[in-house]
Amino acid sequence: MEIDVHHAALPRSPPHRHSSSSPPPGWVRLAYSARYMGLKNMDLGLAFLGYLFLDGLFLCMAAEHEITFDLREKVVTSLCNKSESLLLVNESYPGPTLRVRKGDTTYITVNNNGLYGLTVHWHGVKQPKNPWSDGPEYITQCPIQPGNSFTYKVIFSDEEGTLWWHAHSDWTRATVYGAIVVEPAEGKLYPFDKQPDGEHIIILGEWYNGFLRTMLEAAMRIGADVAPSDAYTINGQPGFSNDCYIENITIFEVARGNTYLLRIVSAVMNEEMFFGIAGHNITVVGQDGAYLKPIPTSYIMISPGQTMDVLVTANNSIDGHTSYYMVATPYSDSGGAPFNEKNTSAVLNYGGLIYNPLYPEFLPDPKNTDAADAFTKQIKALATEEHPIDVPQEIDERIFITISVNQLPCNLPEGEKCGGPGGNMHASTLNNISFQNPSVDILQAYYWNLTASTAPPLPFDTDFPAFPPVPFNYTAGDNAQYQFPSLGTKVRMIEYGQRVEIVFQGTNIGNPENHPIHLHGYSFYVVGRGHGNFDTDPNYKHDYNLVDPPRVNTIGVPKNGWVAIRFKADNPGVWFMHCHLEKHAIYGMAGVLIVKDGDNDQEKMLPPPKDGMPKC
């Protein structure tokens, strides 16, 4: 590991800094930065900006950081000595960890030295009034082209816990990803009975043999699924269950008697995962950058896009074992879609040589929906005076969205065959509309139409329906007549300050399964969840949890079931909403919410960066 500590110059003067070119009288500005490059997943040193009073007193305030992401291809060897050229950040796989405190702001310059354009998203960071740095391709920006750079201004607000960052262009997030650690504000402690003695970052991912972009392009041309991955990984390594050598496994060292905070990120592309540690119970204390009521358990179920904070105490000695496997296994409730059925593992080691680690016998099998539900139903917000929640009790706008896996007629030249069911092409939808990316990004088009006297036509329609265009029995056995959707680039306009409820309804169209839905720009409250059809009768009283529902940014909608979420639309901007299974996102299971500006300046979007946005 190389660490370079040096005085850092600011790339520009953000508008909210002190307007003078010098600090206020009596203060000295400090700036430090560190850059990490290497193949181990380590914390990336961040530039710290603060003010030091001349008499030695320190003012506690949010800090600002400056770092650089250098993107380029690098040959990486894994999965029993398989070598592939991967697009990486700072030559690290997984990418570097960003460590900040609650309320900080981070400037991240992405230098794209790769082979194709891409964007980066800061998953779970709300970016108040600042969709310009949210990152989804053709939604809030166009790709950063090879040889170009772009600086993201990442504004942290009330998030606290574990989040993550990843590429947001096609499937590039398969290798371009890393953790974000948001520590409590200066002087604050974790709201746990015992403060952890240490922590480990655990990132679940997937490994593909072959050049994934070529595989993706070939599949999309004929409307087929991309083949399942060749291995799941923990911090980039596949582990024991793939019959690889010990150097292909990640080892987490612990000291007996100590308690550790495990920060778990699911960067998996297409499957939910069960996770547990042999010989140890764990306690879940956080999800998606917010605290939970503690959940003692032997396993978790985590969906792509989600993060969980887990406590574990190294206090076991079973038959003399000092090493214990931590294992992740897939959970797939799909009826027939192919998936990688292998496990991935790492080792929790109490020190010394690793010999015959204990393997867990308790993880649920890949089709165990009861086990997935049993864990998910326990998740509730901490909801204390220091970590309060604010669930909308009354609703101004109700939106009902069906989620489906569909088909499109084959459009290849005569003699060529499509790769979807029945010779058709795969598609996926929200409210039976398959989202189509525009050729220019939605945010810039929307902003210029608001502010410019003349502007080109909008590349989207504002008529995304608040209810399915054709209601039907969503979970019935035969829904083939609804198999073929419409195509469109449609957004839903929402007035600032509205209290919104969205119900996501899974359908039995095509091949139903659990869908992890992610909403950018917001954390939302999961107030209800169930199997079967949601009762839309306005007089029906649902058994909602309005007392301590979890506040998350990604939620799994159960197979042939529903989830109800609530939030207050108080973050103006253009915000993407999509399934976090990449096999569905690429075929249109997505939509856009545009929250309009409010009346005063504190309720309006920030202007675009002075240095401009990437060109389309």
UniProtKB/TrEMBL annotation:
It comes from the Eukaryota. Residues 73-185, 199-352, 464-598 form the Plastocyanin-like domain. Binds 4 Cu cations per monomer. CDD domains: CuRO_1_LCC_plant (cd13849), CuRO_2_LCC_plant (cd13875), CuRO_3_LCC_plant (cd13897). It is found in: Secreted, Extracellular space, Apoplast. The keyword Oxidoreductase applies. The keyword RNA-binding does not apply. One of its GO terms (biological process) is lignin catabolic process. Keywords: Apoplast, Copper, Glycoprotein, Lignin degradation, Metal-binding, Oxidoreductase, Repeat, Secreted. Its EC number is 1.10.3.2. It catalyses: 4 hydroquinone + O2 = 4 benzosemiquinone + 2 H2O. Gene3D superfamilies: Cupredoxins - blue copper proteins. Its cofactor is Cu cation. GO terms for cellular component: apoplast. InterPro entries: Cu-oxidase-like_N, Cu-oxidase_2nd, Cu-oxidase_C, Cu-oxidase_fam, Cu_oxidase_CS, Cu_oxidase_Cu_BS, Cupredoxin, CuRO_1_LCC. Lignin degradation and detoxification of lignin-derived products. Belongs to the multicopper oxidase family. PANTHER family: LACCASE, MULTI-COPPER OXIDASE. This is Laccase. It comes from Quercus lobata.
